[in-house]
Amino acid sequence: MKVLFPLLQVLLTSLVLSTIGSAAADDGDCSPAEGTCRVYNILGKPEEYTESTVPGVKLAVRRWTPDDVKSVVLFAHGGTYGAGFHSGYSDIMGKSFQEAGIAVISYDVAGSGYSDGLKDKNGNTLRNYFDSMDTLTNDFTKVLNDVRSQYPTKKVFAVGESFGCKILLAQIMKEQEQSKGSLADGYVFSGPVVQLLPEMLPPKPVIAVMSFIAKFFPMLTMPGTDFFSTFDLAFGDKAWAQTGRHDPFVIEAASIPPKLGMIISVLNSLKKLNDSLETIGVPFKIFVGENEGRVDVDAIKRLAKVAKSTDKDIEIVPGAYHQLFQDLPEVTQLVCRHIQEWILARS
Ligand SMILES: *[C@@H]1O[C@H](CO)[C@@H](O)[C@H](O)[C@H]1NC(C)=O
After folding, report:
1. CA 5/CA 15 separation, integer angstroms
2. 269 pocket-lining for ligand 1 (C-beta < 6 Å)
3. Angle, nearest 10°, between helix axes 163-176 and 133-150?
4. How far, in Å, is the centroid of ligand 1 from the Cα of 110?
5. How many domains does the chain have?
6. Which of 38, 278, 296, 324 is the most buried (most CB within 10 A)?
């Protein structure tokens, strides 16, 4: 074990790094307060909360509601575990959809943003942590059902970005397995995590050993990672990178080492998805930036190709990066407009 642990920690560190960023930034020490860097406005604490499927955990909810609702979106934010993102980054997207007559509901996933975290066995709240992918998919299904009962006559679509899409894909697989599964009327994936970049994954035998250890030590923490040297290339608009760098939630997330059980749950779920991409049968559209560098684009294209869905599409967005809702204004507006068109054509 003594030899094994350092080895695992090196591998896990590179694995975790791969999920949170890609290129070096040299301008991270400016100050928004002194006006030396441009930042976007992130929304603060919301007023509305809903119950998670985990007892006692409340999830922060945001809404963008038009006067005349033509269709409804439940949004799954990305950058969740390790990156500190939350639904407060979605205002530009939310407002754009609201103007197009589409209501948007979003919530911070458990342990991130303004939502409660799960508790450890001593009752301490765990930030940027989940015990299993099931918790995340169950919460999504729960909120989806809530939204359906709030809008019984409207179609309800799921829109995800990055790791939020991984939650949606796992949710689809789980609900498809049940005879009366709760599925959205269509799914939009923006820069989806279908697979991590292959070069960032530990070799398969190492993953097998990690899985074994995780059964006994799920709360084993991995060392902290050099988070901010790799943050900026997710963003086509550098002001968004600066916004993240100065966000207390992002700084907090960077300081919390991930737990082995959580990482293994994600890896197992990614493997299961990879082995059964063809079973995805829901209507969907994928958007991926031409300059996508943080997720496996080949796996995204494979999803578009092999899924058994009869209503599926993929659009490569020229000049765009990973976070399509935090790209240059013209890129984000184009992506929003194309998603709205896809949704309204099916509403
Ligand atoms: C995913 O599936 C593809 C095609 O079956 C395979 O080539 C690839 O090695 C798999 N990737 C992982 C990480 O299992």
Report:
1. 15
2. no
3. 80
4. 30
5. 1
6. 324
Q: pLDDT tens digits, residue range 320-334?
A: 999 999 999 999 999
CA-nearest residue, atom 2 of ligand 1? 274
Is 268 close to ligand 1, i.e. is its CB under 6 Å away?
no
Tokens 């799921």 identify what position?
A: 158
- Cβ–ligand 1 contact at 138 (below 6 Å): no
Q: Which of 199, 274, 297 to mutate to test the pocket of ligand 1 (most atoms within 8 A of CB)?
A: 274
The protein residue whose alpha carbon is closest to atom 14 in ligand 1 is 271
Residues 143-181 as b/e (b if ≥16 CB within 10 A, e otherwise) read bbeebbeeeeebbbbbbbbbbbbbbbbbbbbbbeeeeee
- Count of beta carbons in the 10 Å neighbourhood of residue 132: 16
Query: Ligand 1, closest atom to CA 271?
Result: 14
Q: Looking at the predicted structure, is the pLDDT value of residue 200 above 80?
A: no
Q: Give me the torsion for CA of 262, 263, 269, 272, rounded to 10°.
A: -140
C-alpha 96 to ligand 1 mean position (Å): 37
Assign residue 337 the CATH number of its domain: 3.40.50.1820
Q: How far apart are CA 160 and CA 189, in angstroms?
A: 5
pLDDT tens track for 202-249 = 788 888 888 999 999 999 987 655 666 667 888 999 899 999 988 999
Check if the beta carbon of residue 262 is closer than 8 Å to that of residue 165. Answer: no
The tally of CA atoms less than 13 A away on the side-chain side of residue 334 is: 15
User: Which amino acid, 188?
Assistant: V
Tell me, in angstroms, the distance from the centre of ligand 1 to residue 274's CA.
6
Give the predicted TM-score (pTM) of the model: 0.91
Q: Which domain holds residue 187?
A: 5-344
